[in-house]
């Protein structure tokens, strides 16, 4: 039996928003426009709304991809009628995938975890696209630090569904008690762990609200607000579950 650490990827090990910022800046500037933080915030807001429409099945993924860039360029007063917005979206994702950004201290943390905890396995569980996840992982050197990876686009289901976790558990062929889910998201990581009956650790490196209330609601076992804290928590868990 191993100690199986099931890590979420974005805003846990990698900084998705930092890569998104780089990608968007390049796209805007290569189209002759001026990139501003305000524009980035506008994109994030519209993008989030469009993803919600997609999840409700009101729009397709291609409509989402086109619309987010149509809105962005319209905000810059650019006529988009002759622009290939899907192609621009593809370029954006490509730039992001080549520009992974680590959460500060992530590699050192994983290295220490692997070295210090016997029989540890680092498994990445992420919602998202294969190219975007794998590219960012490789561009940061994170690929040297994990044993297995499960990407929703590849396996066909998302966290927090129980199917996602069942596929992971079957594939790694380890008992539930040997696994702990670590992630920043309540609605995908913590809810997913709860659905699957797994131990969980909520990673909250940025400010979080209603911590105690959420820990109760999502049956969260541990929390950590830095990699140092997370290391201590995981070491304690590993000792208990030996
Ligand atoms: Mg996350």
Automatic annotation (TrEMBL):
Gene3D superfamilies: HAD superfamily/HAD-like, Putative phosphatase, domain 2. GO terms for molecular function: 5'-nucleotidase activity. InterPro entries: HAD-like_sf (IPR036412), HAD-SF_hydro_IA (IPR006439), HAD-SF_hydro_IA_YjjG/PynA (IPR011951), HAD_sf (IPR023214), PGP-like_dom2 (IPR023198), Pyrimidine_5'-ntase_YjjG (IPR052550). It comes from the Eukaryota. NCBIfam families: HAD-SF-IA-v1 (TIGR01549), YjjG_YfnB (TIGR02254). This is Non canonical pyrimidine nucleotidase, YjjG family. It comes from Orpinomyces joyonii.
